[in-house]
Specification:
Layout (H helix, E strand, L loop, with lengths): L3 H10 L4 E5 L2 E4 H18 L8 E4 L4 H12 L4 E3 L6 H11 L3 E4 L4 H6 L9 E4 L11 E2 H4 L16 E4 L9 E4 L4 H12 L6 E4 L7 H11 L3 E4 L5 H10 L4 E3 L2 H9 L6 H4 L4 E4 L6 H11 L3 E7 L3 E6 L1 H6 L6 E2 L3 E6 L12 E7 L5 E2 L6 E6 L2 E14 L5 E6 L16 H9 L4 E4 L2 E4 L6 E9 L5 H15 L5 E5 L13 H21 L5
Parallel strand pairs: 1-11, 3-4, 3-5, 5-6, 6-7, 10-11, 10-12, 12-13, 13-14, 25-26
Antiparallel strand pairs: 1-2, 8-9, 9-19, 14-15, 15-16, 17-18, 18-21, 20-21, 21-22, 23-25, 24-25
Helix pairs in contact: 1-2, 2-3, 10-12
Protein name: Class I adenylate-forming enzyme family protein
Length: 528
């Protein structure tokens, strides 16, 4: 998050300009500077002596969290958020990797910390953003921190580190570690390419525990603009904020963007809003969403691809996205994309394989695992690449298209291709008029080890369930004939607040039905 020194520069230049909007709360740059100085001073006085100092938050988006993040950042303490919807096992695993010395939480999300036994007797500064700690319990209320006199907080003496967590949608999130900052270079590249400035108003629609939330908010705060905290789960409220606050830029994950452009109130936003840059990334940005976004919001949609480990790597703009909706884009400055075969050799354009990325934004390490780095001769020079868990191909125009999430592409066996275009199949299914949403999961059946596609889908209405099932099955057979598909109707696809499919939760729901159908197929009662 932005540091106190930069906040004070903006406060001196335009003290009355609004920096942060959270519902009825509007913090000017002068307000923000005062509050961050008070909180940073108070934290410095109370900070445990343990080094390295690290901060974590388990809290929903609110202005107090922005102040707290800016305060610990001003002290040189790395700060990272936890997905409060991920459950106790993921939370405990993440905390064990990070070992924080500062914990920031709200009463709504406190239960998961209590359930996993944090901080409970540890030498930790426990900050409660919206409540007082219980009587005789350790911890401090955020309101008490604000009572401190604003001072000149000094950064702690420790090596630079930056942290982020992978999504953990199918297991324990991994802690990603960087030991040098790339922020200045990425900031300059994005501002230069997209002409962002101090008059921009950025709407935050993702939880700040996701790296993209504070990452993009920091750009506009660094410019002296305005950041609006919006409720990702209230579509009507997001649309009102876009209009009422003069929002000019925003990042929306595909499920949120889909809801916005399907809402009746968004019909005239292309004429009534200031939007000039809308960013999205991830799965299910199908042709319908792309076209409807153009109709409702105008030519403003940009799609990006990046990972927690590699940063923001490719981007595609509205005009090109309109004619090539499945593409993720072209490499941004300072990034190289390679697609590799099972022996880690580059493959020709148009051939699918494992995606590898070279970038100035690459991670240095995981806390508990070894990343897969390799040095490749690419473009006449040796570059360091990180092997991702994604597969895809590069088209003749140099654009990347992702085709699936594999955690490593296996060799072709039994006549099966190197990689199945799972995302392409998902896009085909999302274009069916009987399908509201779906996810294609490539996995192995636990009983037999057979590799299959499991395809949960939500029909547009109960009346379309049977016909929808037939249509989805036919599309799977046509697009991926090499793998048996198990099509299962569900009420909805579970997403995380950051737009990721909750794969583990989804599999747990549908696997009993799949196993029963697989047994029936093996018995020969129905054709496979």
């Amino acid at each position: 998050m932005i540091k106190l020194a930069d906040i004070r520069k903006h406060a001196a230049r335009r003290p009355g300009h609004v920096a942060v909007v959270d519902g009825e709360v509007r913090l000017t740059w002068a307000n923000l500077a005062d509050k961050v100085a008070r909180v940073a001073t108070a934290i410095e006085e109370r900070l445990p002596d343990i080094r390295p100092a690290r901060a974590v938050f388990v809290a929903e988006n609110r202005w107090e969290l922005v102040v707290a993040m800016a305060a610990v950042s001003s002290l040189g303490i790395p700060c990272v958020g936890l997905d409060y919807s991920a459950g106790p096992e993921a939370t405990a695993g993440a905390l064990e990797q990070l070992r924080p010395t500062v914990i920031i939480s709200t009463s709504a999300q406190r239960a998961v910390l209590t359930e996993v036994g944090w901080p409970e007797g540890r030498d930790v500064l426990d900050i409660r953003l919206d409540s007082d700690p219980p009587r005789n319990a350790p911890g401090v209320a955020f309101t008490d921190l604000l009572l401190s006199e604003p001072g000149e907080p000094r950064p702690v003496e420790q090596p630079f580190e930056a942290f982020s967590f992978t999504s953990g949608t199918s297991g324990i999130p991994k802690l990603v570690i960087r030991r040098s900052s790339f922020e200045a270079r990425r900031f300059a590249d994005l501002v230069d390419q997209y002409s962002f400035d101090e008059d921009d108003v950025h709407l935050v629609t993702v939880p700040l525990y996701h790296a993209s939330g504070p990452g993009w908010a920091r750009i506009f705060l660094s410019l002296g603009g305005t950041v609006v905290l919006g409720p990702y789960d209230d579509t009507a409220a997001l649309i009102r904020l876009i209009q009422d606050e003069g929002v000019s830029t925003t990042l929306m994950v595909p499920p949120v963007l889909k809801r916005v452009v399907a809402h009746p109130a968004s019909e005239h936003l292309h004429k009534t809003s200031r939007l000039h840059f809308v960013l999205s990334g991830g799965r299910h940005l199908n042709r319908w969403v792309v076209n409807n976004t153009w109709d409702r919001l105008g030519p403003v949609l940009h799609l990006y691809y990046g990972t927690t480990e590699t940063g923001v790597n490719v981007m595609i703009g509205p005009e090109e996205l309109h004619v090539a909706p499945c593409r993720s884009g072209r490499p941004m400055p300072g990034n190289t994309i390679a697609v590799l075969d099972p022996e880690n050799r580059p493959v020709p354009k148009g051939m699918r394989g494992r995606v590898a990325i070279a970038s100035y934004q690459l991670m240095d390490a995981y806390a508990t695992a070894e990343p897969e780095f390799l040095d490749l001769d690419h473009g006449g020079r040796i570059q360091r690449f990180l092997l991702t868990g994604d597969s895809g191909f590069i088209d003749e125009a140099g654009r990347l298209e992702l085709t699936g999430r594999n955690d490593g592409v296996s060799k072709a066996t039994g006549g099966k291709p190197l990689d199945v275009n799972v995302f392409g199949l998902e896009n085909d299914l999302m274009d069916l008029p009987c399908v509201r949403e779906t996810a294609v999961l490539r996995t192995k059946l636990p009983d037999t080890g057979e590799e299959v596609l499991i395809v949960p889908f939500a029909p547009v209405s109960p009346e379309r369930l049977e016909s929808g099932g037939r249509a989805v099955t036919a599309a799977c057979t046509r697009r991926v004939p090499c793998l048996p598909a198990y099509v299962v109707p569900v009420e909805a696809i579970p997403y995380s607040p950051t737009g990721k499919v909750r794969a583990a939760r989804l599999l747990e729901t549908v696997l009993p039905l799949v196993r029963a159908e697989a047994a029936t197929r093996r018995s020969g009662l129905v054709p496979a």
